[in-house]
């Protein structure tokens, strides 16, 4: 079992709809969780991070964390074609300070 | 502020050749990292440096060496390149190990 798992996609959503991305992790003691966006041929850029159970909103993005169920999700509201990218989930395990990345979910927003 | 810079952007090597990938950051960050990214595999940590003067192995260190030259610079060396090292290499830095990591533009390496 991978430490951090994501559906590779592609997740196809119409413009204006909500894109919902999920990420599960195996280390129950993980403390911090990150979502990065990566456009094709570019480097990852941080969208947001979350440490506590519940929701965290930043503009059109909402991260949701459920430590009991060991998943973190990202919602993209009012999806735009410019949101078409691969979204990487990263988790900092309880032991050590290194990030573990999932394989990424490719999102396609169709006009 | 250039952020995190990497050189070269592209490189083609023959099996057995050596090369050094350069990374520099101007954000006064303490921690620096080297990752490789392969299709469907996400980012895998090769080596990291928690602070100037220290380096540690990550998930996939075999075939690589690193040098933390000073606080700004962290280089990755392939002593004898193999086709399995064909990948995109990203350098990243952060204020501390618990903090957000910022990535460089990447180096695309092809080993024939």
Task: Spell out the key features of this protein.
heterodimer, A: 111 residues, mainly beta, 5-stranded antiparallel β-sheet, 11 strands, B: 112 residues, 7-stranded mixed β-sheet, 0% helix, 52% strand
Structure description:
The complex is a heterodimer of chains A (111) and B (112). Chain A has no helices and 11 strands. Chain A has 111 residues and is an all-beta fold. In chain A, the strands form 2 sheets. In chain A, strands 2, 4, 5, 9, 10 and 11 form a 6-stranded mixed sheet that branches. A 5-stranded antiparallel sheet of chain A has the order 1-3-8-7-6, with no helix packed on it. Chain A is globular, with a radius of gyration of 13 Å. Chain B is 0% helix and 52% strand. Chain B has no helices and 11 strands. In chain B, strands 2, 4, 5, 6, 9, 10 and 11 form a 7-stranded mixed sheet that branches. In chain B, strands 1-3-8-7 form a 4-stranded antiparallel sheet, with no helix packed on it. Chain B is globular and about 35 Å long. The mean pLDDT of chain B is 93.
Brief sketch in words of this structure:
The complex is a heterodimer of chains A (111) and B (112). By secondary structure, chain A is mostly beta strands.
The ordered string of helix (H) and strand (E) elements of chain B is EEEEEEEEEEE
How many distinct helices of chain A? 0
Using only CA atoms, what is the Rg of chain A?
Answer: 13 Å
- Give the averaged pLDDT of chain B, no decimals: 93
Q: Uncertain segments of chain A of ≥5 residues (pLDDT<50)?
A: none
Main sheet characteristics of chain A: 6 strands, mixed
Helix content of chain A: under 10%
Could you tell me the mean pLDDT of chain A? Answer: 93
Estimate what percentage of residues of chain A fall within beta strands.
over 45%
Number of E-state strands of chain B: 11
Largest sheet of chain B: 7 strands, mixed
What is the general shape of chain B? globular
Q: Helical content of chain B, roughly?
A: under 10%
Rg calculated over all Cα atoms of chain B: 13 Å
| Structural class label of chain A | mainly beta
Give the total of beta strands of chain A: 11
C-alpha end-to-end distance of chain B: 36 Å
Unreliable spans of chain B are none
The chain pair with the largest interface is: A-B, 20 and 20 residues
Task: Provide the structure class of chain B.
Answer: mainly beta
Give the N-to-C terminal Cα separation of chain A.
36 Å
């Amino acid at each position: 079992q991978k430490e951090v798992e994501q559906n590779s996609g592609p997740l196809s959503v119409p413009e204006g709809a909500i894109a919902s991305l999920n990420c599960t992790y195996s280390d129950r003691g993980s403390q911090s969780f990150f979502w990065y966006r990566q456009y094709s041929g570019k480097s990852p850029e941080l969208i947001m991070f979350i440490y506590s159970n519940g929701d965290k909103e930043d503009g059109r993005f909402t991260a949701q964390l459920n430590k009991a169920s060991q998943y973190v999700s990202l919602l993209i509201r009012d999806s735009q074609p410019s949101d078409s990218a691969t979204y990487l989930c990263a988790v900092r395990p309880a032991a050590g300070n290194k990030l573990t990345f999932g394989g990424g979910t490719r999102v396609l927003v169709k006009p | 502020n250039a952020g995190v810079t990497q050189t070269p952007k592209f490189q083609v090597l023959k099996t057995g050749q050596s090369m050094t990938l350069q990374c520099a950051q101007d954000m006064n960050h303490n921690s620096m990292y080297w990752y490789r990214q392969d299709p469907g595999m996400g980012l895998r940590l090769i080596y990291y440096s928690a602070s100037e003067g220290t380096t540690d192995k990550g998930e996939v260190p075999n075939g690589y060496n690193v040098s933390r030259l000073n606080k700004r610079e962290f280089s990755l060396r392939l002593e004898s390149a193999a086709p399995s090292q064909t990948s995109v290499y990203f350098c990243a830095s952060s204020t501390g190990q618990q903090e957000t990591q910022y990535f460089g533009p990447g180096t695309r390496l092809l080993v024939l």
